Write the structure tokens for this entry.
Amino acid sequence: MTFGDQGMPHPSDPYASWVAEQERIRRKRRTRRAAAAGTGVVLVAAIAAGAVLFEGGGGGETATATPLTSATADTGTAVPSVTATLPSDAPTTLPSLLARPVIRPEQAFPQQNVRLKDGARHHRVDLATTTDCARGTSPELAALLEQGEGCVRLTAALFTDTEQRSQVTVSVLSFRRVEDASAVFMMASMDPVTYQAVSLDPPPEAGLPTVPPGSAGVFRRLMTVRSVVFANGQWGDGAETREGELTRLTEGLLQHVNDTVAAYEQGDS
């Protein structure tokens, strides 16, 4: 599957109903709303070994997000304008790391069968990629992507466990600038349901059910040098039980892919 005409639908077609249902669920959950208009958000940015990490509070150099109402998503919702800056102690190797080509699909997801550190096994049933990153994100995240210098490539893979109960989509969004990746990571961390990469539906040949619209899920994300890695985990039947197990599977796959992307972007592979 690709994100083109035959791939993941754009939010203007049937996916729009899924987005609307997710928004309904979001309002029922205890999800923190991303930075209300007129309120500043300050995060500490620390760059070590080529990776950008964010923590709340503390001292040192800061990256500031100043919410405005200058952008509007397809849903009519005002999207904050976010600006992130690099700390003064950014590593001198950063320009050379950014000069490398963004990670390719076969580099981000080199294996069809994955065994995680805890022994869990997963099978990749689909792989999709696009240079039009907005086609694989929620409307709010798509609007946020337009504010910077651009997302270069989005690659997503759909995994299931050996019993074919779970469906976990891991998406890699790679950016031209670290600042743009940082802004996306900040907003997705504060409101993971609104600012998310969308999940892939299993292809017919996979023999997996399509997760019912509006089903509960686990949303996680990590950041590397220039990419934000998203993971959305759901049970294939849409069940809301065994949240701990689903979280473990989702976070395990997220960490596995993040390690792969980080190794490439730091020049280790």
